[in-house]
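User: For a reading group we're discussing how well predicted structures match intuition. Take DNA repair protein. Before you show the prediction, I'll give you the sequence so everyone sees exactly what went in.
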Amino acid sequence: MAATEQQHDQALKKFLDERPELRVELDNLNPLLAQAKGETAAQYREERLHEAFEAEAEHLGLFAWELTLQLTAATEADYQAQRLEVHREVAEMAGMDWLEYCELYGLAH
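Assistant: Thanks. Here is the predicted 3D structure of DNA repair protein, as structure tokens, for the group to look at:
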């Protein structure tokens, strides 16, 4: 069960709520930068938010979808269960043996 768009939106909101300095930065982006990219100010802001979210995930050694699950799961146990479920789906889609996949990504199985 990959993270849904609704979960991701909730995670982005929580991520931003926990980082007031990032909110200030995003609220004060230069509109000329958006215009130069052919984007609206809102599109440009959203892109910068996603970049900050992905950078945080990378900093934590997570995939962005893992950070989404971490920020939206009710408990640590829920997060771990959802995370393993998505990893299983990825291993299946990749046609990889589960134990080999776990070893490759350092997962307890």
